[in-house]
Amino acid sequence: MKRQLILEDGTVFTGEALGDLGHKEGEIVFNTGMTGYQEILSDPSYCGQMVTMTYPLIGNYGINRDDFESIDPSVFGLIVKEMCEQPSNFRSEDTLNDFLVQKKIPAISGVDTRKLTKIIRKHGTMRAVLTEATASIEPVIPTFNQPLTDQVSRVSTKNPYVAPGRGHRIVLVDFGMKHGILRDLTKRHCHVTVVPYNYTSEQILALKPDGIMLTNGPGDPKDVPEATEMIQALISRVPIFGICLGHQLLSLACGADTEKMSFGHRGSNHPVKDLTRSKTFITSQNHGYAVRVASLKATDLSLTHVAINDDSVEGVKHNHYPAFSVQYHPESSPGPEDSSYLFDQFMTNIQQFKQQSKEAL
Length: 361
Ligand SMILES: NC(=O)CC[C@H](N)C(=O)O
What we know:
One of its GO terms (molecular function) is carbamoyl-phosphate synthase (glutamine-hydrolyzing) activity. This protein is α/β, with parallel strands linked by helices. Helix content is 22%, strand content 32%.
């Protein structure tokens, strides 16, 4: 069956319908990772978005039980040049297309993804629809609905749950958490309580956390004002580590500003300079918003990490409290694991804060 991808600017791509056959609208973005499609499709930060893979052949190693970043994917669509129908890998349990059908994710193959990516790079991210191809020669440009603003409430856990451990007590505020973050904390023996995004500072303090983590998540950070209030109330009291949306929320809570990028950063090889260590790391990224660098001046935040490609803000730390955050993904999944030292940094901050609190008694 033929299907069309129609962009807001009127560009139409026709290809083969794959995955779920329904009509779907979303924001179109591209990811440059050569592998990692399973993690990308199950990353809740893509809620509301359709992702174009720039690598031309997707699905080669199938779907396995280990690489999910959430149980129920919330991505709105997948666009590929070619989809592999017969995966070959010892871990593969399913084909990509069967997975897309089961999880009701619409997809299209046969698209010139290089051309599509060039359009997105030129015009910025756009609204788009995946819809059944019509016989008409003239493309019918759809009317687009208002962009979503409630993605975080769609993907955050509705109830708190615990991953028990004997180490530090961490409250992990779930804005659309990738499982990789939880894995990195449990690997370090933490006792993790995952809580909904709208938990108040009082509810969080009642759990007596040694540290608080703010996860990644979908959409505009300004759509979750309750989180900035919660962070403001906690920042002087408990060590905090934020990732991606969590980094944007920490920055907003400290008085910085965020902006929408033209086409964002999505891929597994984005170079980032750690200004403190004077070292460059290759990082995994997925974001369409960024903290405005000029807005940091009037805050108590210092710039710690910068994107090599476009000088955008990739990390900040608080000048007085043990709070820091990065725009990229130290949990990788998919991508290089070189930045996992930031989880160790968080553990050190917690240890030092505990020591200082004891000495102050
Ligand atoms: N991965 C994320 O947390 C993404 C953060 C935010 N939704 C953005 O696109 O910038």
